[in-house]
Design a protein that fits this description.
- The chain folds into two domains: 124 residues, Rossmann fold; 95 residues, Arc Repressor Mutant, subunit A.
- It is 46% helix and 20% strand.
- It is built from eight helices and eleven strands.
- The strands form three sheets. Strands 2-1-3-4-5 form a five-stranded parallel beta sheet, sandwiched between helices. A four-stranded antiparallel beta sheet has the order 6-7-8-9, with helices on one face.
- Strand 3, helix 3 and strand 4 form a beta-alpha-beta unit.
- The longest helix is centred in the middle third of the chain and has 24 residues.
- The protein is elongated and about 50 Å long.
- 32% of the residues are buried.
- InterPro entries: CheY-like_superfamily, OmpR/PhoB-type_DNA-bd, Response_regulator, Sig_transdc_resp-reg_C-effctor, Sig_transdc_resp-reg_receiver, WalR-like, WH-like_DNA-bd_sf.
Length: 230
Amino acid sequence: MAKRIALVEDEKAIRENYVASLRKQGYEVYSYETKQEALSAFETRLPDLAILDVGLGDEPEGGFELCRYLRAQSATLPIIFLTALDSEFDTISGLRLGADDYLTKDISLTQVLVRISALFRRIDSLKNTQDNADELIEVAALQLDVNRFTASWQSEPLEITLTEFWILHALVKRPGHVKNRDQLMEAAKAIVDDSTVTSHIKRLRKKFVAIDAEFDRIETVYGMGYRWKA
């Protein structure tokens, strides 16, 4: 069965170009111009993957609002932001809301297709993992449930995305061992760039600190990567 992709983009030329390219790859594509059109469709049926422009018409954060809605409905649905904006603030804002990737509109269609394919492979891989795994990891006050893709710290649930879960999983599997950004990208089963990995790490830390103000287990090893302090 063809994967169902939702594209929310207010620029007609860009929207039509992406729809044509994605359909050539065999995807079932539905496109929307406004936040409300997309929201109405999502309330009826969720897509298998969503590509969201940040600014939609006269709503400069319409895409962010759609991301919030989708993430509330599903922790695993892949979400990509596609936008003309390219600042660290916009990137971190999108990732903080639970997006899996963040692409600027000057990126080639080939690269967009590669990243979409990678995210779908991740979902297929996760299904296999969920079918075969029976793993509960406990490190200090952290607990990771690989079957349910959930995490808690000091018995308090951590509201983390799937990408964050796998990055955290990679770090705690071998406490004290440094993981570079490429290894963390591989662990997340997605194609993201260095700045995106950095943003995910920042978000993870903030979520731990919200529970435990003295949390300092995720350590930056400058020039090398990150590790979970043993």
